[in-house]
Specification:
alpha+beta, 66% helix, Alpha-Beta Plaits
């Protein structure tokens, strides 16, 4: 269940209340006249079923509430209410299959921004991957996969393409196009310092081949794993089952390939650097394609193309 709060002008409150009263997926309706201070107006709250959220948000946005006031949604972990149970039972569809498109756009939009935090996480992940390759540590490599923040922008591109939110596509593409080269450069700098300090040499790559050849060897399985991971990741995001995302992070070879490329560049292993970058590209494309395909299928399963989402 979700908690909905709408701030709207007093004149629009009757229409907002009508939308919530008439929808079977809404319960526990609260109206607070004049409670909003900035902007001034009324506050309307309700408990709504997840599968009803998209329709209710679209109806409220059609009234202009998202422009004249505001709409917020919060996930409720525990709801003890017969009325809420009835609303969830009567709402069409299943909660696990419901996609709250506005929430998905907002979430991926926030995670797709290129900023210092994104670059820091990506750089640390690539450095961890480099250490994993140099020390032949599988555990360190897995840790690097989990730390990597790249799935946010990848999901953002997929959501932007399906919802025709090209501003989101551009934002996410910039994060990846700028973030990965910088992270690889930082990793290369760290590898250079390591070689200068005598911590390792070119033999570090050849000694770890048996364990990490998957990082730079591009083949059909690279694409298959990327596609499966992208599909699982988007299913996790759209069904609010975030636990599955950890498995997605560990499955893909994005951060390991980027980290390997940085080390290979410093050691003059240009062929392996090129193959690592190719592996990175295959994984990025496969994840985006699969994630977009999942969204298209879920759109069609809902029986509609969906309301166009305003840029934001």
């Amino acid at each position: 269940m979700l908690h909905l709060r709408a701030v709207c002008p007093g004149a629009a409150a009757p229409d907002v209340l009508a939308v919530l009263r008439e929808h079977a997926g809404a319960a526990n309706l609260v109206h607070l006249p004049g409670a909003a201070v900035h902007p001034e107006g009324d506050v309307v709250e309700a408990t709504i079923a997840r599968e009803a959220a998209d329709e209710i948000l679209a109806a409220l946005s059609a009234l202009g509430v998202d422009h004249t006031g505001g709409i917020t949604l919060e996930q409720l972990d525990t709801v003890l209410s017969d009325a809420a149970d009835t609303a969830e039972a009567e709402a069409p569809g299943e909660a696990a299959d419901a996609v709250v498109w506005q929430d998905l756009v907002a979430k991926t939009g926030e995670e797709s921004r290129f900023n210092a935090t994104f670059l820091a996480f990506l750089s640390i992940a690539c450095l961890l991957a480099a250490v994993g390759v140099i020390t032949a540590s599988t555990i360190t490599m897995v840790g690097a996969m989990v730390v990597g923040p790249e799935f946010g922008p990848l999901a953002g591109i997929a959501v932007g393409l399906v919802c025709k939110r090209y501003d989101l596509v551009k934002r996410a593409a910039v994060a990846l196009a700028v973030g990965f080269p910088l992270a690889i450069a930082i990793t290369a700098g760290g590898a250079w310092l390591g070689t200068a300090a005598g911590l390792f040499d070119a033999s570090a790559l050849t000694s770890s081949d048996a364990q990490f050849d998957f990082v730079y060897e591009v083949g059909p399985w690279s694409l298959i794993v990327a596609v499966l991971a992208g599909a699982a990741g988007m299913l996790s995001m759209t069904s609010a089952k975030s636990a599955a995302l950890v498995g997605v992070f560990i499955s893909v070879t994005t951060v390991p390939a980027a980290g390997y490329a940085g080390v290979a560049a410093i050691l003059g292993q240009w062929d392996r650097m090129g193959m690592s970058l190719a592996q990175l590209a295959v994984n990025l494309v496969g994840i985006v394609a699969a994630a977009a395909a999942v969204l298209v299928l879920r759109h069609r399963r809902a029986g509609r193309v969906g309301r166009p989402l305003a840029p934001g």
